[in-house]
Amino acid sequence: MSAVPEWFAGKARWSGFEIAFWCALAGAYFLPNIDIALLSQIFIWGLFAMSLDLLLGYRGIASLGHAAFFGAGAYCAGFLGKYGWGEPVSGLLISMLPAAALGWLTGKLVQRVSGVALLMVTLGLNLILFDFVQRSTALTGGDDGLQGIAVDPLLGLFRFDIFGRTAYWYSLGALFALFVFLRAFVHSPFGLALTGSRENARRMIMLGSPVEGDISIVFAVSAAAAAAAGALLTQTTQFVSPATLSFQRSADVLVMLIIGGAGRLYGGLIGALIFLVMKDWLAALSPVYWYFWIGLLLVLVVSFFRKGVLPSLETGMRGLIARLGKARGGGPPA
Amino acid sequence: MAAVLTVLFNGIAYGFLLFIMSVGLSVSLGMMNFVNLAQASFSMLGGYAMVAATQRFGVPFLASLPIAFLAAAAASVLIERLVLRHFYDTDDLTQVLLTLGLVFMSIAAVTYFWGGSYQRFDLPAWLTGQQDVLGLTLETYRIFLVLTGALLAALLIFGLERTRFGAMVRACVDNQRVAGACGLNTQLIFAGAFAIGGGLAGLGGALAANLLGLDPNFPLRYLVYILIIVSVGGMGTISGTLAAGLALGTADVMGKYYFPQFGGVAIYAATVAVMLWRPHGLMGRRA
Lengths: 334, 287
Prior knowledge:
The structure holds 2 protein chains of 2 kinds. By secondary structure, chain A is mostly helical. Chain A has 15 helices and no strands. Chain A has one domain: Orthogonal Bundle (ABC transporter involved in vitamin B12 uptake, BtuC). In chain A, helix 3 crosses helix 12, helix 4 packs across helix 11 and helix 5 (about 90-110) packs antiparallel against helix 11. The longest helix of chain B is centred in the first third of the chain and has 31 residues, at about 1-30.
């Protein structure tokens, strides 16, 4: 009778892999010759990809315009810093609010469209915001970006230094805090209902689940998380430009998520890690042609690992464990 | 008044260019429900084929246009048979990502062979300069574009409505399974339509090189416009794509002349509104 809730509770429990993963991220700081600026970028992009995963992986809604929310958060944090609100943590939290409202509205707009129309609507909204920000030179500085953003020391103690040490711990801390929240969110009954709607919306309606209303809520949460990533970028670099809102960025984050694997939060992080490390390495080899290899990786991933790298690894591991179990004579419990 | 009409004419010329580049995607979306962003790369390929033919081998401009068509058609059939056909049964997003990957690869490959700068080439003397038509002073090249575009549109509509192959294509757009059950080789028909669409994209790229500039980022710059035209016009309809192409071309050029402060916002907002109102496009049939 209680088997089903127990199964869900088991899913929500932290595994040894996860604890090791986060310890490794924190421990990476102390490795010799580690590029902590690159790692901070990976945390920020990872958070951004994770926010898209909430939409795409857990609710099955594709967005070609997720940079709109990232950019909204980035500009909001920029304005706060420029006009006197330099406290980073509260600035980060405040920056999430407008994007959440924007996401809620977007969700309301798109709750009835799907397929190509959905891609076009999200792309169109992203382009409108990009064009607006680029053209409002008096407000945003246009292509030159927003200058003169001041950020106070973190918790009043740690200044944002040029080596990016504070930025490293700040982005890791924010990433972890939001991850814990999103993890709880997707394992909550509401999160499970989202997955249900992704799998079979008609059946969820039969069960009395408000399928369409859920879309605006998950959009708002996803947008807020994307905005947090944008605000982190602004606060750690003290600069924001229209590039934060570009179609290129929307495409890149989608590519990261697909490479890593959608539908398990860690996919975005792994995807950001693979994408940015590859980019760093390839751009050093040949600054002009590195996009060829990213393109090839994308083609290979959608051709051979339809679900992304992480789920394919998981399936492979499970198969291996099952085979080992059989070799020992006792199969795994069904 | 004359100035407004000249701007309008320039917009129409631009619209015909966009139509030629987009019509292939409209057909592939209508027939196989396949989102092929690589269409923009076929356009770029056609442009580079034209530049190579005229600049390196001294082929006359007019003769280089069929070369651009054939080069892009050959490339599109090759890509379709080797890669794309394995993805007909996947969802829109997978197709978008797959073909986006191909676009990235094409950009880097073109940079490798031709360098990253804009390609320069000379139009023949008879296509440069201006002409007086009905009291308006129009650029000769744009007149050439409008005539070519109108001719191509007429040929396509006639071909689709009146020829045997056109009837087969329409049958496949309407219901691929039933068309197959009636004995049509849908794979072959699709490959044929795909080749024509890819070739037209290449021709569009060759015609656009002079007006829009040709560099490796060409696909990314025009990808969004191509997508807007096809989705707003309605997938699988030639006339819808033509109407949307002309509307976008005129709106874009007129907007740049008279309302530069708005930029693309009006176009993007109109796209969003149309997609919310009619997700299958203005002239698209309900799928």
